[in-house]
Design goal:
The longest helix has 46 residues. This protein has a 5-stranded antiparallel sheet, with helices on both faces. Helices cover 46% and strands 23% of the residues. By secondary structure, the chain is of the alpha+beta class. It folds into 5 domains: 141 residues, Beta-Lactamase (2-Layer Sandwich), CATH 3.30.450; 93 residues, Beta-Lactamase (2-Layer Sandwich), CATH 3.30.450.20; 99 residues, PAS domain (Beta-Lactamase, 2-Layer Sandwich); 75 residues, Helix Hairpins; 151 residues, Histidine kinase-like ATPase, C-terminal domain (Heat Shock Protein 90), CATH 3.30.565.
C-alpha cells in the first residue's frame, strides 16, 4: 500500500541518517541492546515485538503483542501464532519470515492479527535477522489504513461525479495551474488532460488574456464570490456559459457549449421582429372579420334560442362556448353552469373513447362524421340518450375554429328499441327451449311410455294366466314408470320457469346445519333402503341468511343424482364445512357411483347435458343446470370433481349474507 510508505522503516532510517550509520548497523546495535537487557527493552517495549529462534522456530511475543492478541506472554509454536493471523494474510506473512531468514536486509510486511473481541487489527512489521534470531517490531496501522481507504473512496466518488456530469469542468490553483480536467473539458478545449495538468492556463491559452474569461476568473479569485457569464471564444468558434466558484486555494470552473442556443436566440429575435410587423398588418384584417362574425353570431342566437333541440358551440377541444336555453329542459343545467366545461365530463364512461376516436377526432380531421347516439348525464344523475349531429366552422385561413353540435333527446326511442330487442331475444330463447324440450321429451319419455305400453299389453293378454301377486307387481312397475315421468315433468317445468322468469331469493335467518339435517331426513324417506345418507360437520355453524326453497332445490337435485347414479354403491355423504370467523360456508355431496367422463365435465352444468355413461338411467339433463341457477341466485358458486367409475363430489359455496342486486 502507498498511503504511508512504511512509516516505521522511514523513522528508523531517519535515525540512522542522523547518526551517520547505515540501517543494518543501527539494527545490530538495537539487537545488542536487546540481548543485553532482554527483560527490560524487549518485554517493556510499548510497540508489539516478536523474537524467533531460527533453529527451533520458537516464537516469543513481548508483553505489548501479547496484550494485543489477548494471550499470555509465553513461547509460541509457529502454528499457534499463525492462528492469530488473518487467513488471507498468512501466506505473505510466512513469505516475509522466510525472506528475513535468507537475507541480510530488512523485510517489511503488513498483516492482520486477531485481537480478541475487537476483531482483526492491521500491523506493519519490520523484520531483520541477527545470527540465529529473527526480530520483528510492529506498529498498529489500523486507523491509518481506515483513514486512507475513506480518503481514497471520497476521492473516487468526487472523480466519478466530475466525470459523469454533463458540464465540462476544470480546477485551477492560486497560481492559475490546472489541477483537474474532466473528460467533457478535454472534448471542448480540444486538448488531452495530460497536456493541461500542471500548466498555467494563461500560457496555454495566451489569446484569452484580453477576453472576458481573464477578467471574470480574476474577479472570482480576488472577490471570492461566484461569477456567471457568457462569452465567445474565437479560436474554438464557440459560445460558452461559464460558472466560476472560488475557494481558498484556487477556482473551480464549470462550463458548457451554448453556441446552438445563442444562434437560436438570435434567430428568435429576428423572427419576433418579423412577426410583430405581420401581426400589426393582420390585426386590421381580423378586426373586420370579427365584425362580420359578431353579426353572424347574432343571427345564430336568434335561431338557437327558439328551438327545442340543444344547439351548442364548442372549442376544437370540445369545451362548451355556447349552449342554447333548451339545455335546462333537456339536461337540468342552466347554460352558464356548463359553459367552459368539457362535454366529456357528462358522457357515460363506457362511451367516452368511442366518441373521442370515431367522432371528435374525425371531425377535427375534416372528415364527414355520422350522427352519434350516446348517453349523457342529467343534472340529477341519471343518463338520457342523445343523438347528435356535428359540423365544423372554419376561420379565414381554413383552420377549424369551432364545432357546432345539434342534439336531440332520443331516450324513448332507445327504450322502445331495447324492449323490442329483449322481446325478440326472449322469443328466440323460448323457441330454443321449446325445441330442446320437444327433443328431450320425445327421447326420454319414449322409454318409460314404451315400458308402460308393454306392461299394459302383457296384463291385457295374460290376465287369466297371471297370479294376483304378479298383476300387483306389474301394476307397481307401471306406477314406477309414471312416477319417473312425473319427476321428469316437474324438473322440466321448474327449469323452464327458472329460465323464463328466474328464481327469487327470499332469505330468512337460519342455521345451515339444522336446515340440511332436516332435508336429509326427508331424502332418506325417498332413497332406496340400500342407500345410506350421512351428514358430517367440522364445527358448529353460525346463523346465516338462507332461502329454504333454494336450499331444498339444491339438496333435492344433488342427493337424488347421488342416489340415482350410485345403484351399486350405497354410501352417500353430505359434508358441511363452517368457519364462524369467515363470511361463507360450504357443503359437498359425495357419492361412489358411476362418475362422469373427464372430457364431459365442462358441459355437465348446461341444459339437457348428461354423461355418456348413464346407460338406461332415467334423467332429463336439467338437474345440475337448475341447481347451478339456484346456487347463483343464492349468491354462491358450485363446482364438481368426478372420476369415471369411482364417484362424484359436488361442492356448493354460499355466503352467510347476500343482498342480490335488483
Amino acid at each position: 500500500m502507498t498511503y504511508s510508505q512504511t512509516p516505521m522503516i522511514e523513522e528508523v532510517r531517519d535515525i540512522a541518517r542522523r547518526h551517520g550509520i547505515d540501517l543494518k548497523t543501527l539494527l545490530a546495535h538495537l539487537t545488542d541492546a536487546t540481548d543485553a537487557t532482554d527483560a527490560h527493552l524487549f518485554d517493556m517495549a510499548p510497540e508489539p515485538m516478536l523474537r524467533v529462534n531460527v533453529e527451533d522456530s520458537i516464537l516469543m511475543p513481548n508483553a505489548a503483542l501479547a496484550a494485543y492478541i489477548k494471550s499470555t506472554q509465553k513461547p509460541l509454536a509457529p502454528l499457534e501464532l499463525i492462528e492469530f493471523i488473518h487467513p488471507d494474510d498468512r501466506e505473505k506473512s510466512i513469505d516475509a519470515y522466510q525472506r528475513a531468514t535468507q537475507s541480510e536486509t530488512t523485510v517489511t510486511v503488513e498483516n492482520r492479527y486477531r485481537c480478541g473481541d475487537e476483531g482483526y487489527r492491521w500491523f506493519e512489521w519490520l523484520l531483520w535477522r541477527d545470527e540465529d534470531l529473527i526480530y520483528a517490531t510492529g506498529r498498529d496501522i489500523t486507523e491509518a489504513r481506515l483513514n486512507h481507504n475513506n480518503l481514497q473512496r471520497d476521492n473516487d466518488q468526487v472523480s466519478t461525479i466530475l466525470e459523469s456530469i454533463t458540464d465540462a469542468f476544470f480546477a485551477l490553483d492560486s497560481t492559475w495551474r490546472f489541477t483537474y480536467v474532466n473528460a467533457e473539458a478535454e472534448h471542448l478545449l480540444m486538448r488531452p488532460r495530460e497536456e493541461l495538468i500542471g500548466q498555467n492556463i494563461w500560457e496555454i491559452y495566451a489569446d484569452a488574456r484580453n477576453s472576458l474569461f481573464y477578467t471574470k476568473y480574476h474577479q472570482a479569485m480576488s472577490e471570492q464570490r461566484v461569477i456567471t457569464f457568457r462569452e465567445y471564444y474565437q479560436p474554438l468558434e464557440m459560445w460558452f456559459e461559464v460558472h466560476v466558484y472560488p475557494s481558498g486555494d484556487g477556482i473551480s470552473v464549470y462550463f458548457h457549449d451554448v453556441t446552438p442556443e445563442v444562434i437560436m436566440e438570435e434567430e428568435i429575435t429576428r423572427l419576433v421582429n418579423e412577426l410583430d410587423d405581420r401581426v400589426q398588418a393582420r390585426t386590421a384584417e381580423l378586426e373586420a372579420a370579427n365584425q362580420r362574425l359578431r353579426e353572424e353570431e347574432q343571427r345564430f342566437r336568434v335561431l338557437a334560442e327558439n328551438t327545442i333541440d340543444l344547439i351548442a358551440l364548442h372549442a376544437p377541444d370540445g369545451t362548451y362556448l355556447y349552449l342554447s336555453p333548451s339545455v335546462e329542459a333537456l339536461l337540468g343545467y342552466r347554460a352558464d353552469e356548463m359553459l367552459g366545461t368539457s362535454p366529456y365530463e357528462y358522457f357515460h364512461p363506457d362511451e367516452v373513447e368511442t366518441i373521442r376516436e370515431k367522432h371528435h377526432k374525425q371531425a377535427l380531421a375534416g372528415n364527414k362524421v355520422d350522427d352519434v347516439i350516446y348517453r349523457i348525464r342529467h343534472k340529477d344523475g341519471h343518463y338520457i340518450w342523445f343523438e347528435t349531429y356535428t359540423s365544423v366552422v372554419f376561420d379565414e385561413p381554413g383552420m377549424i375554429s369551432q364545432l357546432v353540435t345539434i342534439s336531440r333527446d332520443v331516450t324513448e326511442r332507445k327504450l322502445a328499441e331495447r324492449n323490442l330487442r329483449d322481446a325478440l331475444r326472449n322469443e328466440r330463447e323460448l323457441n330454443t327451449l321449446k325445441t330442446r324440450f320437444m327433443s328431450m321429451t320425445s327421447h326420454e319419455f319414449r322409454r318409460p311410455l314404451s315400458s308402460i305400453q308393454a306392461i299394459a299389453g302383457k296384463l291385457r293378454r295374460y290376465t287369466e294366466k297371471l297370479s294376483t301377486e304378479r298383476i300387483v307387481h306389474e301394476a307397481q312397475r307401471i306406477e314406477t314408470q309414471v312416477d319417473d315421468l312425473i319427476s321428469m315433468l316437474d324438473g322440466l317445468l321448474e327449469s323452464l320457469q327458472a329460465n323464463m322468469i328466474g328464481l327469487r331469493f327470499e332469505p330468512i335467518q337460519m342455521n345451515i346445519a339444522d336446515l340440511l339435517d332436516g332435508f336429509l331426513e326427508e331424502m332418506r324417506l325417498l332413497a332406496t333402503p340400500t342407500h345410506r345418507l350421512t351428514l358430517t360437520s367440522n364445527k358448529p355453524c353460525p346463523v346465516a341468511d338462507l332461502d329454504p326453497n333454494l336450499i331444498r332445490i339444491i339438496m333435492a337435485n344433488l342427493i337424488s343424482n347421488a342416489v340415482k347414479y350410485s345403484p351399486d354403491n350405497p354410501n352417500i355423504r353430505l359434508i358441511l364445512t363452517c368457519a364462524p370467523e369467515r363470511d361463507h360456508f360450504s357443503f359437498a355431496v359425495q357419492d361412489e357411483g358411476i362418475g362422469i367422463p373427464a372430457d364431459q365435465l365442462e358441459m355437465i352444468f348446461q341444459d339437457f347435458k348428461r354423461g355418456s355413461n348413464v346407460r338406461d338411467i332415467q334423467g332429463s339433463g336439467l338437474g345440475l343446470a337448475f341447481t347451478r341457477q339456484a346456487v347463483e341466485t343464492h349468491g354462491g358458486t358450485i363446482s364438481l370433481d368426478s372420476v369415471e367409475g369411482r364417484g362424484t363430489t359436488v361442492t356448493v359455496r354460499l355466503p352467510r349474507h347476500h343482498s342480490p342486486s335488483r
